[in-house]
Write the structure tokens for this entry.
Amino acid sequence: MAQYEFVSLWKFNAPQQQVWELIFHAEEWPNWWRGVEKVEQLKAGDANHVGAVHRYTWKSKLPYRLVFQMETTRVAPVSLIEGRAIGELQGLGRWQLSHDGEVTTVRYDWKVETTKCWMNYLTPIARPVFSWNHNVVMDWGREGIEKQLVL
């Protein structure tokens, strides 16, 4: 399996709570995050959603889709969400939110392995393209949040 590590940083002139609500409620992502086709809750989890399991279907600039499940493993309300991916991608994801005055910073760390044979086979030559594609999809997320914050 090919391993990837990505870090995305977003900054918003908005209250941290408002940004948190958009990220925390993943079921709503298809409404504003281009590239997220579907988010299905498979298991509810506790009051903070720890133990919740969602199935995500993503599309991107490249002509393929990825489907994987995320289990929420840790939540510190308004500042941290961690989860474990299983499926066509497997690994760990972590959302961290902080603020400085009126600016909210979002950091997303994504450490995953691909499980699709064709992706693993192409990794030696396609790694830069897969990385570019990830960045495009994350930019769509940032743009989607920005639009939601001005509504």
